[in-house]
Amino acid sequence: MKKRLLPVLLLVLALVFTGCSTTQVEFWNKCQESSKWEASTIKAKMAMDMTVADETMKMTMDMDGHANTADMSSELTMNMNATATGQVIKVNDAKIIMKDDKTYISKNYLAQCFAVDGMTVPEILTNADTDFITFTDSNEQTAMMMALVKQSMLEDPAKYYEMMKDVAADLGFDVAVTKKDNTYTIELNEKEVLALVKQIILTTTENIESLNTKYKLNIPADKIAELKGQMDEVKVQLDQLIPMAEAMVKGTFKMDYTFGKDVVNQKLVMNFAIPMLNMTMNMSMDADTAKAEVKEIKAPEKVLEMTQTELMEAMMPKMAIINTNTNIIMDGMGKEETCKVLVKADKVYVPAKLTLGYLGQEVKYDEVAKKAGIEVDGTFVALNTITDNSTSYISVEELQKLGYTVEKAVGSIAIY
User: Fold this and answer.
1) Which residues are registered as beta bridge partners of 320?
2) Once rounded to an integer, what is the mean pLDDT over residues 273-287?
């Protein structure tokens, strides 16, 4: 999975770390005060509804967490209720823990999502030896960011905040901040948001190497090359994409920060629509961050380490999609290879070992039965196959007898 951490970081900087007006400086100073707390709690509620054509999704979420400043450890418990296309999704007591530069996600979050509408929960999420999953590729990004913050913010907070303001200035960000009593507001319309995104891409592409050196971001050279490659691809299309997006997207983004004694309230409201697609999205969040005492946060013990791609592969339903025109077989993740299809006596045959492999089955040869077969619930099941050029082929009818669903369309066969 491509790493897109820096563009996201810069977008956050653009929305939060601002230029040099008097109101912006006041806001910045207020942010510094709360970030000096040794620890904090957060309680938040989020609501979102999205409509595309005649389909609607609604979601509410409650979050309750704690964070320690010194070691940057944190824990968050989440409960979610959602409805989408007639399905009801409930997630209870899902946890996210950050400790020692690693992020851990409780497996019950993913398992509960899969349990919706009778879907089979993948074996990887039913293993009793696993309570949490940590993504090794995300940990790499997290560790890089934590190293930056630890080296600067925790060692010299004042210098760190000045550095962040300088980053914003170097990239040309100047987001307007208004003030009423103790509330500071950032409000952008769709054109301002899109202009901000364009500014991020252009300035970062041009200055990423100098920013890395100047602010000691410690981003490895290969990661810089990867990030520049990602941004260069988008940069070429900006002149076409931005006007198109401005014509298609309508909406607003608003963030209120209200500073009280030992507590900061954040209210986020986003309303966006794409009329030509008959699509709308509305989201709101209300969060209180309060000063707290340091609390010990431990890393979980029963942890499975893997990449995000590996998890997606494990969770993706096993399927084989065969294009009979191009003789290509593809799985749900987009992996593909050559696959010859035979038609004999009005029956369609596909390579047995290759196709069943895509369906998660290993084809074995039984010396006693003198036949190829698969293991089903611990029992060897022989396959009825034909041979062509030393390759065993199985008919789609035989696959149906084995319990697989076969859907035929013009030029394709889907098996799952």
Assistant:
1) 415
2) 91
For residue 247, CA distances in Å to 112, 130, 155, 240, 302 come to 39, 48, 47, 11, 50
- In this structure, the dihedral spanned by the alpha carbons of residues 287, 290, 292 and 297, taken in order and rounded to 10 degrees, is 20
Evaluate if residue 151 carries a pLDDT over 60: no
Q: What is the 3-state secondary structure (H, E, C) of 349-414?
A: EEEHHHHHHHCCCCCEEECCCCEEEEEECCEEEECCEEEECCEEEEEHHHHHHCCCCEEEECCEEE
Positive or negative, the Cα torsion across 180, 181, 186, 189?
Answer: negative
Amino acid identity for residue 209 in this structure: E
- Predicted model pTM: 0.65
* Arithmetic mean of pLDDT over the chain: 79
pLDDT at 142: 61
Can you tell me whether residue 158 is helix, strand or coil? Answer: helix
Cβ contact 401:381 at 8 Å: no
> Which of 122, 30, 59 minimizes the C-alpha distance to 317?
122
One-character DSSP codes across 75-117: EEEEEEEEEETTEEEEEEEEEEEEETTEEEEEHHHHHHHHTGG
CB-facing half-sphere around the CA of 36: CA atoms within 13 A = 11
pLDDT(366) > 60? yes
Residue 289 near residue 41 (C-beta atoms within 8 A): yes
Phi first, then psi: what are they for 154, rounded to 5°?
-75, -30
Contact 59, 49 (CB under 8 A): yes
- The DSSP secondary-structure symbol of 318 reads P
- Are the beta carbons of 127 and 304 closer than 8 angstroms? yes
